[in-house]
Amino acid sequence: MKDLKHMIYFENLLDSAYNELVRQAKEDGKKVIGYTCFHVPEVLLNVDNCFSVRLRAPKSGSFDMATYYMTTGTCEFARAILERSIEGGYNFIDALAGVDTCEGMNRCLENIEVQNLITGKTFFLSHADIPFCYDDDAVIHYTEQIKLKIMDKLKENLGTDISDAAIKKAVEEQNEVSAIITEIGNYRKELNPLITGHEFHILNLVSYTCPKKLIVDKLRETLEEIKTREADAKNKYRARVVVVGSEIDDPDLITLMEESGALVVADRFCYGSFPGRQVIELDESEGHEDFLTQVCRRYLKDSLCPRFMSQEKVKFREDFAEQLVKDYNADGIIYEQIKFCTYWGYERTIASYIMNNERNIPTLSIDRPYMSRTSGQLRTRVQAFVESLEIKKIKAARKAKERG
User: N or C, which terminus of the chain has less Cβ within 10 Å?
Assistant: First the structure.
């Protein structure tokens, strides 16, 4: 397929957390709010004079210093964030909206705070407590935590307007971006998609790591370009897969999968579009809940994080993954986790068994390093999985022919 006009520009934006659009917005007087987890409602960090940047550590090398403080048995993503903080890579942010969701990131945030790794007159780091369930009491607690630990501090330290009007405007701006990303993603449902998983992942990551006002025009232009793009005459991929799992902010991992023959058609992982790029509907009828509560209720309800361990939530995640397979005409699922991720370690083990043996969906289960591009072992496993999917299709076609 013909290269997308802005793809190199988008790729360059992902080379650094402090990219040129973040610099431009900061020079214009905007406040940069860093965050690392879906449980910080992204849209609430984009109110008034603030904009969000979902933190990454691109081109990470060793984690020697972070490992000294966090040990080798902790999540490599958390260590990568700490290592980059020690290097001074996040000194451009004005606040770090942290949530107590996993022990690895808790320890990372603790080190950033205790060692005073990010400085600034108005800088603050939050530790909001996130419930492990979804019911009315959990929503109340969650909303209180987000208000006290994040929203009130934005107002106090940065002079941010956190009113319903400001939240509504932020929701409208995020919905515009989410609608574009969703429409682009829908083209992956086609049998010969007009966009690869690698390309989509780059577009989606840019929407998380750049000021939305400065990226929305190019995203919209890219959508229009895709609508008239001509697909390759022959699909070069041998199988279609849904990727489910922990944090992926490295487009090279998707490239590895696709070079191995597996076209990634849906991204149900942290930093993916499921969840995170669905439109938020606000109820504005008489007597409605305040918008802060509505947003918090929506994020808590939509969460697909395995830290929610109730049978209802576990089944919801399994049903969601199976529905993606159907909606995107996938041949199988790749369940992945970053090494030493506690929650996804349990989820990956159990879900991969259930999907394979109870739901009859071919599933590959892998754990991986934070930076996976050069992993020969991972490439071999994906290639073997693709071959198994091909063999299954050949056998199914043979049986259908025999019956017919």
Answer: C
